[in-house]
Amino acid sequence: MHQALYRKWRPKTFSEVCGQEHITSILKQEATEGRFNHAYLFCGSRGTGKTTCAKILSKVVNCENVTDGNPCGKCPSCLAIENGSTTDVLEMDAASNNGVDNIRDIRDEVVYSPSFLKYRVYIVDEVHMLSNSAFNALLKTLEEPPSHAIFILATTELHKLPATIISRCQRFEFRRISTDVLTARIKYIADQEGIDIDDDAARLIARYSQGGMRDSISLLELCASSGLKIDVSTVNETIGSAGRERMMDVARAISEKNFQFLFGEIDAVVTSSKDITVFWQDLISLYRDLLVVKTVKESEKYLDLTDFEAKSLSALAEKFSRELLIYHCKMLEEALASMQVSGALKRIIAELCFVKMCDDTLSTSNEALLLRLSKLEAKIASGDIQVKAERESIPIQKKEDAGNVEPPKKPELVFESEPKREVKKSVISADVKSTRPLKAWSEAVQTVQSMDPGAYSFLKKTRAYIGEDKKIHVLNDGFGLFAIDRPNIKSALAAALSKYLEENIAPSDIIYEQDMGKIKLEDDYSDLDAFEDFMNN
Known about the structure:
This protein is of the alpha/beta class. It has 4 domains: about 5-175, 3-Layer(aba) Sandwich (Rossmann fold); about 180-240, Helicase, Ruva Protein, domain 3, CATH 1.10.8; about 245-380, Zinc Finger, Delta Prime, domain 3 (Up-down Bundle); about 400-535, no CATH class. It is built from 23 helices and 10 strands. The strands form 3 sheets. It has a 5-stranded parallel beta sheet, covered by helices on one side. Helix 5 (about 100-110) packs parallel to helix 6, helix 13 (about 260-270) packs antiparallel against helix 17 and helix 14 packs across helix 15 (about 305-315). Residues about 390-395 and about 410-430 have low confidence and may be disordered.
């Protein structure tokens, strides 16, 4: 019967375990000195060697001829454990035996001495699947087991274990195995099995395994099933991946807003019966690498790429700003989450996402607004937007001079001698005119409150907008005009508007108009839109 490669090449000693030297060195030292803990906890991601080390540890604690901290593999104890003929080593899957009754069985039989070996070893895999009552039943036995019993717990989700269980064990955290170590192991196994594989293909398999030795060996066996030489295209075809070069073409098309190419790629993925989520995950991985290149100076430390791939990625990163990459990453993440629950709607989700990625004005997210603001700042810095200065302008007051300027005195209002002012009416057609409000007006009005409460009470009921003549038009109902149409009030409003709009506004730029109901202000117009229009005009 054929035996899977990952089982055939499972390490038999601690020295054969790859990429976990920080753990195997301690276990070997304990075996050499003959001092073992009563409970061990192995935690880490899948395929990193937890169960393998548990099996080796069960051998070494019972081995009659320990050599350099490794089991000899030849004594009767090692042979009995290897062929599974002994009942003193019990391996239990907690995923299917997670009830309190299963733990009670262990608690009842652990008191009996081993029948053949020196220690009775209990290996509990996926221990996080135990129920709360099962954990409670295990507590006392795990803390003070008989001298002949050793517990080895293994889990991929440490956070699901109660703190009372973790504190009773000697914990070892298994790390993801590096790509270099996985690549070397893949090439060694391929050489021993007579499999012809390219170096780039071996590295690509290691990269797709995400630090798991079992996944890398299983993928090697899958790629070798055709009997042909394994190259990069073979690996991509087997996994269903589009490949890094194709992903870079997609990112380049996004930067160039090439909708024809993008929709064609989605159609090619769908018609080839490949999983579009795999395509999407590859694209997210590429954007992560682009963000690293754009953010970190020595990015090669954090990228698992060849020299050619690194150069190509650096050239592609020049087409994107950091704000644009953050916006795209957010869109890709949201689209992937929608695909995972959408079923048959994955195609339209991907196409809509590409459209939004090419046009940031279609999104109202914070990332999109940040991108639009960064583009506006870049235009101002490059001189594409010229800010015009008026002759009659009020300089913006500096913070250091704020304490030396006396606040304006409140003028006395003499109603008898106050001339009757004629309200300037704007020339508006009979149709309702729709325009955009000046959101900075409310902040400017607040500055008048401490200076003249009477004028503030009338100003807070007004609204303002920027007209085609680039003047600030204030809509007023005509009542109280004598209190707000004064030079000192206009000067204060002009200074405040100059501060908020970052543009010199003269008092003569403020024009009061009687609101005749002919002007309709658009409420859904944002501050960013108003600022962009003001600067562009």
